[in-house]
Design brief:
GO molecular function (chain B): ATP binding; hydrolase activity
CATH architecture of chain A: Beta Barrel
Keywords (chain B): ATP-binding, Hydrolase, Nucleotide-binding
Number of domains of chain A: 1
Oligomer: heterodimer
Number of strands of chain B: 21
Shape of chain B: elongated
Order of helices and strands of chain A: EEEEEEEE
Strand order of the largest sheet of chain A: 1-8-6-3
Function (chain A): This protein is a component of the acetyl coenzyme A carboxylase complex; first, biotin carboxylase catalyzes the carboxylation of the carrier protein and then the transcarboxylase transfers the carboxyl group to form malonyl-CoA.
Protein name (chain B): Allophanate hydrolase
Largest interface: A-B, 17 and 16 residues
Domain Carboxyltransferase (chain B): 23-315
Number of helices of chain A: 0
Radius of gyration of chain A: 12 Å
Structural class of chain A: mainly beta
Distance between the termini of chain B: 30 Å
Amino acid sequence: MSQSKVLSPIPGVFYRRPSPDEDVYVNEGDAVSAGQVIGLVEVMKSYFEIKAEVDGVIESFAFENEDSIDAGQEIAVINVK
Amino acid sequence: MIHVINPGLETTVQDTGRIGFYEVGMPPSGAMDKYSYTAGNLLVGNNESAASLEITYLGPELEFQEDTIIAVTGGEIPPKINGESVPMWEALEIKAGDKLSFDFVKQGARVYLAVAGGIDVPEIMNSRSTYTLCGIGGLNGGKLQVNDKLEVGNEKIRDVKPGTRIADHLIPSFDKHHEIRVVLGLCSYRLTEESKDRFFSIDWKVTPEANRVGYRFKGERLNFVEREQPFGAGSNPSNVVDLGYPIGSIQVPDGVEPIALLNDAVTGGGYATIATIISADLNKLGQVKTNETVRFVSVDIDEALAARNEVKEKLAEIKQNLSK
């Protein structure tokens, strides 16, 4: 099985949920499809959606909600279907 | 014409800025890193004040609908033409139908896309710069959007051969830790001596609140000299009677999280400005990313002016090399 790494193109604060009182977008072990939002990065007072690039299953997240993240860092690993 | 397939995160039209209206509360906007911006215009044979695209963190995807010459300068957001990597700091030939896209940012925060002829948007108060907070200038007063069309202007004044490059020693490089020079004042007398020392002796981390308006830093609390606040000043010790804010001035509301005011910032107010970033290093600050660190270094006005002249001399050298 091949893996796809989801990288952050921008620096900022990483969020796993769309807003503080909502559930996380996805959990480890969940199936995702290409184009599906799996998190947000906040910078310059705007939110950038982080999307899965492939169909697969979330293997792991490298960051927790509200962690600070740099451009090019790996956010998550997806096991490609 | 240039078709915006994908605008990137914050891509705006910028030029040298809306100069001459500061006293009526209009900040200049304009390119954050003027050195790289100017070098880009020189590389494509433009007037130095032609409008370019300022690209922050994440590059756009653009389709050119005419033949032209372009150059990408600034930090390092590696450009690609039709999927093939192309160099920065070099005049590049574009054919109608070519697509320009970018890889992830490698260093710095912003790049400038200069197009021969410049980006043609209406001038508002003598400038094409976008001032997003007021919704004026640039294309429709804001950052680029999907499916926008950009017209190319006629600010080209000389021919530059594709492949022409900026000499290596004139290309800046950017680290993740930055030294930014400041001149102390206008209201540094409000800080305790200890806090003044601390301001210059710790690394300040750039928060996610860092954009064209200002950069906010995290470090430690700074303390102000106790006093009875004068008439007209706010009640917080970080308040003074309102004053004009120099561009690049640093204020510390309530003593926490210093803010450096930049090209799109408010022009005056009632916070003590403890130091002002020198003009030469405003270019550098424009290339500092969120999560990176800054150490402020105190210089006097003579050193600041010498640094400004150094930038001018480098641009003069670029101009001379290109006219050979």
